[in-house]
Amino acid sequence: MTIGAMTIRINVDHHSGATTISLHGWIESEEEAFELLSVARGSSAPVVLDLQELQNVDANGLAALTALSAEGARLARTSDFIKLLLKTHMDPRPSS
């Protein structure tokens, strides 16, 4: 799936009773985050989000990933950079 100038590519693979959604590129807009939410929430099987090729996300993307994780999606192959962004988004308070 391509949105705008192709900042994000969303690949969907249904196998072994799960839906794996692989993200490639950047989530840079509310429209892209909404598309991810729509694809993931449209699955009747458990969702695995493969984030190995996700390079960066804006606040909309972080909110979408956080919401999907809270709804039971498993985040897999997440880079340290994306993990840090997610952690910061989920707990924005500075450490003491």
Descriptive key words:
96 residues, alpha/beta, Transcription Regulator spoIIAA, 3 helices, 4 strands, globular
Q: What's the structural blueprint in terms of helices and strands?
A:
Layout: E1 8-15, E2 18-27, H1 30-41, E3 47-57, H2 59-70, E4 74-76, H3 80-90
Parallel strand pairs: 2-3, 3-4
Antiparallel strand pairs: 1-2
* Fraction of residues in helix: 25-40%
Q: Helix count, per DSSP?
A: 3
Q: Which class in CATH terms?
A: Alpha Beta
The biggest sheet amounts to: 4 strands, mixed
Any guess at the CATH architecture? Answer: 2-Layer Sandwich
- CATH topology (fold) name: Transcription Regulator spoIIAA
The chain-level mean pLDDT equals 91
The CATH superfamily is STAS domain
* Whole-number total of structural domains: 1
**Spatial strand sequence of the major β-sheet:** 1-2-3-4
N-to-C terminal Cα separation, in Å? 42 Å
Overall outline: globular
Fraction of residues in β-strands = 25-35%
| Beta strands, count | 4
Low-confidence stretches: none
Given helix and strand content, the structural type is: alpha/beta
Question: Rounded to an integer, what's the Rg over CA atoms?
Answer: 13 Å
Order of helices and strands: EEHEHEH
